[in-house]
Design goal:
9 helices; 74% helix; 210 residues; mainly alpha
Length: 210
């Protein structure tokens, strides 16, 4: 993930900067990047137009930091951690559920970042970083299952993670952004079945391997 060094701010400056980031995010989500003006953001944040430039050099700089925050939130929100048992099938199911919920909370801004990536390399790198986090996590998980004899050993972990991750990402877009009709339980169940079957994992095999 991108690590940014920020100038040291007073507590008041930190609050003002946070308020501008929050206001900018709300404005971008509601109106889209092109329609947002700096004055709109300042009005939402309750700060003067001039104060904006103390913290951000431009609307583009503000959007860049909002985008980076969204990427970080999506990663954090989709970490399974202790939210599922040690059963591999259950953990894949939990990961799919958390990813869909993270996408639902951030999809509009992610799509704006994708649009911006067409003309600005910075945003393309940001999207690659987001995908790389999920690919690495999926590849590491598959590698562990292969070592335990629970997944097809012939599969390349990274390539498989890219393909299956792409399936989940595309479904999230079609379902949440384009309005495909499916409830969350069906979506999570089908994604998990397809992911597990693709790597040769079944509920029976995980139970026997425990």
């Amino acid at each position: 993930m991108i690590v940014r060094s920020s100038p040291v701010l007073t507590p008041r400056g930190q609050r003002t900067r946070a308020a501008l980031l929050h206001a900018g995010r709300e404005a971008f989500e509601e109106h889209g990047y092109d329609a947002v003006r700096i004055d709109d953001v300042c009005r939402r944040a309750g700060v003067s137009h001039g104060s904006f430039y103390t913290y951000f050099g431009s609307k583009e700089a503000l959007f860049g930091e909002v985008a980076e925050a969204v990427v970080g939130e999506m990663f954090a929100a989709s970490v399974v951690g202790d939210t599922a048992t040690g059963d591999p099938y259950a953990r894949i199911e939990a990961a799919n559920r958390l990813y869909l919920r993270a996408w639902a909370a951030n999809s509009r801004l992610v799509r704006m970042v994708e649009h911006a990536a067409v003309s600005e390399e910075r945003f393309g790198r940001l999207l690659l970083e987001l995908r790389e986090v999920f690919v690495r996590r999926g590849a590491d998980g598959l590698r562990r299952l292969q070592e335990q004899g629970l997944a097809d050993p012939a599969l390349d972990p990274r390539v498989t993670a890219i393909m299956l991750g792409g399936m989940v990402e595309h479904f999230a877009h079609v379902w949440l952004d384009l309005g495909e009709q499916a409830d969350e339980e069906m979506a999570v169940d089908h994604l998990t079945r397809l992911w597990a079957q693709a790597i040769g994992l079944t509920r029976t095999s995980t139970t026997e391997g425990a």
